[in-house]
Design a protein that fits this description.
Blueprint lengths: L1 H24 L8 E3 H6 L1 H8 L7 E2 L7 H7 L6 E2 L1 H15 L6 E3 H7 L3 H15 L1
Antiparallel strand pairs: 1-4, 2-3
């Protein structure tokens, strides 16, 4: 019985050591992903509601903390407020402009080239830090 327990513990420790080593080696790896236009569109209402803090159906651009300049471009009537229709139209236009091969799917490469995502945020922050010094 103690031999079995020792064997199970040894296997568990070995697996734990291997998985930790793999995780350390692959920290910078992000698997490629594809984002279909339909999936992108279906998430827009959720994104809009996250921006619409008071739930009145209007996003005030002046109240935005992150990237107000991008959302300002979506403001079709230049009133300083975004409706869902303006947000959706601007977001879809951005998707379509990023979809360079026009297959209605954004690949990781297309998103990276356009500066989308966490890696792009890190590059922007590094650039901002360099220019501030």
């Amino acid at each position: 019985m103690t031999v079995r327990i020792a064997f199970v513990v040894a296997i568990a420790l070995g697996l734990a050591a291997c998985s930790q080593k793999i995780a350390e080696e692959d920290v910078d790896f992000t698997p490629p992903t594809n984002l279909p236009r339909a999936d992108f569109e279906s998430g827009l209402i959720k994104r809009f509601h996250r921006l619409d803090r008071d739930g009145d159906g209007i996003v005030r651009i002046a109240d935005l903390k992150r990237r107000p300049e991008r959302l300002k471009r979506y403001d079709a009537n230049n009133d300083g407020k975004l409706t869902f229709d303006e947000f959706k139209a601007g977001s879809i236009a951005r998707f379509d402009a990023t979809d360079t091969n026009h297959d209605a799917i954004l690949s990781s490469d297309e998103r990276d080239a356009a500066g989308w995502g966490r890696d792009a945020d890190a590059r922007r922050a590094a650039h901002d830090n360099e220019t501030a010094e």
